[in-house]
Every structure is written in C-alpha cells, then in structure tokens.
DNA sequence: CAGATTTCAGACTCTTTTGTCCAAAATAAG
DNA sequence: CTTATTTTGGACAAAAGAGTCTGAAATCTG
C-alpha cells in the first residue's frame, strides 16, 4: 500500500515531531533509534526537504526539523511528497483517465473507500500522530516505543522485548 | 495498491464471467482482447486455478472457466488469491503483529478504511462486476469496453479511440 | 585555520516485480 | 496415429524498488 520509503518517512517525521525539544535532529539519531538504514533514510528525508516539508542544517548541531508547525503537516502531505498522490486518485484497476465518464466495474464501490482515505489523510496531522506516539502502548516501529525512550523503566505492554 | 498481476487477474476474471456463453475461454483470447501479455497472463491465471477459483482445460476447445458460479466469487477472493490478504490486515506502517494492543499512531483512523475495504471486497461479487462491465460506458481496460465488443457499431463515449 | 560532524549528491549492488520465451504434457479433430 | 491447439512449468531478461557506500560541501568547535 505504501512504499518502504514512505513508511520510513512517516515514522521519521513523527519521531521528529514528537522530539520537539531538539531544534535539529540528526538523521543518524533517527535512523539508529528507529532501526532504519541511515543512508536510505537520508535520501527519504532529503526528498521531504526538497518538497518543503522539512528544513535541514549541515554540520555539528545540524540535522532535520519540521518546516512548518506539526499542526499544518498532514499525512496526505507526507504520502504525497514521497509516494505521490496517485493513491488518492487511482484505485482498483488504475486505468488512465479514470472517472465517472469511463469507470471500471468497481468504480462506485472503490471511490467510497478512496474518498474516505483522502479525507482521513487530509485531516490527520503530524501533531495528532506525534501526540498519539507518546502514549504507552503505541509504537512507531516494530520495537520502538516513544514512551519507553523517555522513561526507560517502563515495561513494554506484552513483554516482547528488553 | 494492487499489483499488476492482481489487476490482470481481476480484469481477466471479469472478462470470463461476462463471457458466459463460451464454456472455456482460451487465455490467448483474453490476452489479445484485454491487451495483456499472453505469457504473463497465463501465469496469473495458473495461480487462480491453483487456488481453486478457476478450472482449466488443455487442448483445442480448452481454456479457463470459473470454478464456481460468479455469485460465489468475490473481489476479496481474487485479491487474496493473487496478492494475498495482507492488504486487508496491514495498513499504514505495516508493523508485525499489529493490533489494538500495540498500535501505530494512525491505527484508529486506518482501521476504519481497512474495515470498509474488507467489507466492500467481500460483498462485491464477480457477477456484480461482470454485469456492470456490460454497461455502455464501463471499461475493463484502457481501451476495452465489453459493450463495444458485442455491438461494434457503438461509438465510445468520448470518441477517444477507433 | 584545522578537525570533526553532518547533510548532499551520485554511483553502485541486491531483491522483487514485471515481462518474455521455449519445450513438454494434454486434448480434440481429421 | 498424426497434427494442431492449448495449458503447464520453468528458465531467462528487463525494470523498478530497496539498500549500501563513497566523496564533496557546509558548518561548528577549538
Ligand atoms: S474504481 Fe474508478 S477511479 Fe478506481 S480504477 Fe476503477 S474506474 Fe478508476
Ligand atoms: S494502522 Fe493499525 S493495523 Fe495498520 S499499521 Fe498501524 S497499527 Fe498496524
């Protein structure tokens, strides 16, 4: 559904948003905490800065930061910047020039889902997700829980990892 | 969202269902009408027969046919047989062991979409899609409209092709 | 200024998906 | 029985996605 690049981008952006105390967060820190390949993540985040969603700063004390307040960046923006918006415009058969004038046999059913997806992605802001990411049982990646990072004494909810 | 294999499989299956007059439809016919690579489509349909959704028959007068009535094959079955059911169980971050116990920050929003997708895919039968495919403006592929095949004198709705 | 840190840019490899091709097995028809 | 047709099964090639690596440019610290 979403490409790996897109997933990494979303995870990293939520991480940065939740990490509001640091001005610029080094990509190496994000990559090591989220267990994403550093070089790969670098390229993904470069794309986000080129799309104007993040700012970057080189050198010591450098890193990446959100280009706008977390309330003004939506999931739609993130997906659109990395995977493109085709997920919001195409669907089952992905025929060129889809629309009610020349639909595929599932058009009326798929559009319902597609529209709901679009509405939700446009409404869901980084702030909302970052806030959610701070809750106890919520995880950003297979093993990374933000609450555990802030309070290392907390035990994971199902004891799966150290 | 769906792989090419899956899209081809769905298109071909709808074609077969709408083509109820022929007992076995040769893959070469499907491929040439739908403008899909014959050899590639062959493999996709082999998978559908292996999954028990289609029957095949070799030799002259051979081809493929639905293994069950079109009312009993759903979009869910088709997608599940080719792309697998992960699209109905995973979503935004695709973390292993997703669930309410250890969700990602978008879980509650995504599950709404995922559930609706699942419900629609389970309800949408081949018969419904095949019937729809017979309507004038509905197309199965970029250029293929079933109504035009049955009545070649009909002009396409927007005159895009011969 | 010198050295350390960090993003930037591009080349490169590995894997998966997509697409092509060929020979063998099954079947119908003459 | 022979030939033509059609699926089966696998090998193979091309393209796209995912991941790795190296060097250059910018920036801070001392
Ligand atoms: S559901 Fe509608 S928009 Fe989606 S592929 Fe079919 S025709 Fe196009
Ligand atoms: S939305 Fe829920 S099911 Fe989907 S990836 Fe996130 S946690 Fe998993």
Itemize the secondary structure elements and their pairings.
Two copies of one chain form a homodimer.
Chain A lengths: L3 H15 L8 H8 L3 H13 L3 E4 L5 E4 L8 H8 L3 H4 L17 H17 L2 H8 L12 H5 L12
Antiparallel strand pairs in A: 1-2
The complex binds iron/sulfur cluster (2 copies).
The first copy, chain A, binds a DNA duplex (30 and 30 nucleotides) through helix 3.
Structural summary, described in words:
The structure is a homodimer of 162-residue chains. By secondary structure, the first copy, chain A, is mainly α. Chain A has one domain (4-139): Arc Repressor Mutant, subunit A. Helix content of chain A is 48%, strand content 5%. The first copy, chain A, contains eight helices and two strands; from the N terminus they run αααββααααα. In chain A, a hairpin with a 5-residue loop joins β1 (54-57) and β2 (63-66). In chain A, α1 packs across α3, α1 packs across α4 and α2 crosses α3. The longest helix of chain A is centred in the last third of the chain and has 17 residues, at 107-123. Chain A is elongated, with a radius of gyration of 18 Å. The mean pLDDT of chain A is 94. Chains A and B meet through α1, α6 and α7 of A and α1, α6 and α7 of B. The structure holds iron/sulfur cluster (SF4) (2 copies). Residues 90-95, 98, 103-104, 106-107, 110-111 of chain A line the site of one iron/sulfur cluster.
